[in-house]
């Protein structure tokens, strides 16, 4: 049963001109599996490969009741919910459904900022359809998703991105929640500070030392005190406590990194991962070629090596050179060399390795190596 709600309470505030939606598909991968296999409906579905090295890609709401969450080790998910039905992920199908949803968005606005396959921001200040309000637009989008994909989506409606994202989670699953401009401060006041973007466990602990646990506490400290304590981030925190966020919906966000990573079948010492680094460098290079074809003037100058130890500690090492890697081999050579910067005991074991290219910038010479375009990589 779809639910729709608007935030109660009111605080006088001039209404911003922007109208933003955050649309989030409900338990997306698991819901696609349940849609396509009726015998899975009502079952605790976990989208993951079985095994000690696997992590959960998604969990149905039935599985979430047992504490199963995305990114959790699959073995832990199985302990929490022994009756779970494990389904291997099928990203080809998920991407196809995501394209369907994106086409529905595009009927209403061109200002679409995808965050992943299953969620996006939409600026609906002005729409193609002429619907009377952002709420009506959200309702129309959710109805079309239900009719055309047989899936459900939750949506948040607000005057900016961070509020819309909070709102979309308020009536999940299959819900719609509206935060009207004059309700913002009253809505935010009782929320834990961890609900604000950028406030993680470390910042929560620092704020707790100041007696801050909810947004109202943060607001009471004032901009000056927060800025003195945390610098520019402190002023940003004060703005967020008031519901202020000027970040626009960005339809064409530039690529920040192209990367590939993989989890080993068994934990390995660093000296034994070269073959995996070179294999992943090949995948990263193919992705980099596709990015260069889309944006020929931008090149990546930073090579990144990512490692995860057996006890789940994540390490990254990077090198920014005067010139970008000329080919796949040079990328692999640099990534392998970065292992020397890992200052851990030789007996340390690793469960994951990744190779990335970042530091995208305009090519000052206006030229990109011609061999990048000689071979068309196979589409995912």
TrEMBL record:
<keyword id="KW-0515">Mutator protein</keyword>
<keyword id="KW-0460">Magnesium</keyword>
<dbReference type="Pfam" id="PF11799">
    <property type="entry name" value="IMS_C"/>
</dbReference>
<keyword id="KW-0808">Transferase</keyword>
<keyword id="KW-0234">DNA repair</keyword>
<feature type="active site">
    <location>
        <position position="119"/>
    </location>
</feature>
<dbReference type="Pfam" id="PF21999">
    <property type="entry name" value="IMS_HHH_1"/>
</dbReference>
<feature type="site" description="Substrate discrimination">
    <location>
        <position position="29"/>
    </location>
</feature>
<dbReference type="GO" id="GO:0006281">
    <property type="term" value="P:DNA repair"/>
</dbReference>
<dbReference type="InterPro" id="IPR001126">
    <property type="entry name" value="UmuC"/>
</dbReference>
<dbReference type="InterPro" id="IPR050116">
    <property type="entry name" value="DNA_polymerase-Y"/>
</dbReference>
<dbReference type="GO" id="GO:0000287">
    <property type="term" value="F:magnesium ion binding"/>
</dbReference>
<dbReference type="InterPro" id="IPR043502">
    <property type="entry name" value="DNA/RNA_pol_sf"/>
</dbReference>
<dbReference type="GO" id="GO:0009432">
    <property type="term" value="P:SOS response"/>
</dbReference>
<dbReference type="InterPro" id="IPR043128">
    <property type="entry name" value="Rev_trsase/Diguanyl_cyclase"/>
</dbReference>
<protein>
    <recommendedName>
        <fullName>DNA polymerase IV</fullName>
        <ecNumber>2.7.7.7</ecNumber>
    </recommendedName>
</protein>
<keyword id="KW-0548">Nucleotidyltransferase</keyword>
<dbReference type="InterPro" id="IPR053848">
    <property type="entry name" value="IMS_HHH_1"/>
</dbReference>
<dbReference type="Pfam" id="PF00817">
    <property type="entry name" value="IMS"/>
</dbReference>
<dbReference type="InterPro" id="IPR017961">
    <property type="entry name" value="DNA_pol_Y-fam_little_finger"/>
</dbReference>
<keyword id="KW-0227">DNA damage</keyword>
<dbReference type="GO" id="GO:0003887">
    <property type="term" value="F:DNA-directed DNA polymerase activity"/>
</dbReference>
<keyword id="KW-0963">Cytoplasm</keyword>
<feature type="binding site">
    <location>
        <position position="24"/>
    </location>
    <ligand>
        <name>Mg(2+)</name>
    </ligand>
</feature>
<feature type="domain" description="UmuC">
    <location>
        <begin position="20"/>
        <end position="200"/>
    </location>
</feature>
<dbReference type="InterPro" id="IPR022880">
    <property type="entry name" value="DNApol_IV"/>
</dbReference>
<dbReference type="GO" id="GO:0042276">
    <property type="term" value="P:error-prone translesion synthesis"/>
</dbReference>
<comment type="function">
    <text>Poorly processive, error-prone DNA polymerase involved in untargeted mutagenesis. Copies undamaged DNA at stalled replication forks, which arise in vivo from mismatched or misaligned primer ends. These misaligned primers can be extended by PolIV. Exhibits no 3'-5' exonuclease (proofreading) activity. May be involved in translesional synthesis, in conjunction with the beta clamp from PolIII.</text>
</comment>
<keyword id="KW-0235">DNA replication</keyword>
<comment type="subunit">
    <text>Monomer.</text>
</comment>
<dbReference type="GO" id="GO:0006261">
    <property type="term" value="P:DNA-templated DNA replication"/>
</dbReference>
<comment type="similarity">
    <text>Belongs to the DNA polymerase type-Y family.</text>
</comment>
<dbReference type="GO" id="GO:0003684">
    <property type="term" value="F:damaged DNA binding"/>
</dbReference>
<keyword id="KW-0238">DNA-binding</keyword>
<dbReference type="InterPro" id="IPR036775">
    <property type="entry name" value="DNA_pol_Y-fam_lit_finger_sf"/>
</dbReference>
<keyword id="KW-0239">DNA-directed DNA polymerase</keyword>
<dbReference type="GO" id="GO:0005829">
    <property type="term" value="C:cytosol"/>
</dbReference>
<feature type="binding site">
    <location>
        <position position="118"/>
    </location>
    <ligand>
        <name>Mg(2+)</name>
    </ligand>
</feature>
<keyword id="KW-0479">Metal-binding</keyword>
């Amino acid at each position: 049963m779809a639910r729709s709600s608007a935030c109660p309470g009111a605080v006088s505030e001039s209404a911003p001109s922007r109208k933003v939606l955050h649309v989030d598909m409900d338990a997306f991968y698991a819901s696609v599996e349940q849609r396509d296999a009726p015998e899975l409906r009502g079952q605790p579905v976990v989208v993951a490969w079985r095994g000690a090295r696997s992590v959960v890609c998604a969990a149905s709401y039935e599985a979430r009741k047992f504490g199963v969450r995305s990114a959790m080790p699959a073995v832990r998910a199985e302990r929490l919910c022994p009756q779970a039905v494990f389904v291997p992920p099928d990203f080809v199908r998920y991407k196809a459904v995501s394209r369907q949803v994106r086409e529905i968005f595009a009927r209403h606005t061109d200002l679409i900022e995808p965050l992943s396959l299953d969620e996006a921001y939409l600026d609906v200040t002005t729409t193609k359809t002429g619907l009377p309000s952002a709420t009506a637009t959200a309702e129309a989008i959710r109805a079309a998703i239900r009719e055309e994909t047989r899936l459900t989506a939750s949506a948040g409606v607000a005057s900016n991105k961070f509020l819309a994202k909070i709102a979309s989670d308020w009536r999940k699953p299959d819900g719609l929640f509206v935060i009207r401009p004059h309700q913002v401060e009253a809505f935010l006041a009782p929320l834990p500070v961890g609900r604000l973007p950028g406030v993680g466990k470390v910042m929560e602990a620092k704020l707790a030392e100041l007696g801050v646990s909810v947004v109202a506490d943060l607001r009471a400290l004032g901009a000056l005190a927060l800025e003195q304590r945390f610098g520019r981030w402190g002023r940003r925190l004060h703005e967020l406590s008031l519901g202020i966020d000027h970040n626009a919906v960005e339809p064409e966000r530039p690529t920040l990194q192209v990367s590939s990573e993989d989890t080993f079948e068994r934990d390995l010492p660093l000296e034994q991962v070269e073959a995996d680094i070179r294999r992943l460098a090949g995948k990263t290079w193919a992705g980099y070629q596709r990015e260069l074809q889309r944006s020929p003037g931008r090149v990546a100058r930073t090579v990144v090596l990512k490692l995860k130890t057996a006890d789940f500690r994540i390490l990254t090492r990077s090198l920014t050179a005067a010139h970008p890697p000329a080919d796949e081999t040079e990328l692999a050579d640099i990534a392998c060399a970065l292992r020397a910067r890992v200052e851990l005991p030789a007996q340390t074991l690793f469960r994951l390795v990744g190779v990335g290219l970042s530091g995208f910038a305009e090519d000052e010479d206006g030229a990109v190596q011609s061999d990048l375009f000689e071979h068309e990589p196979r589409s995912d």
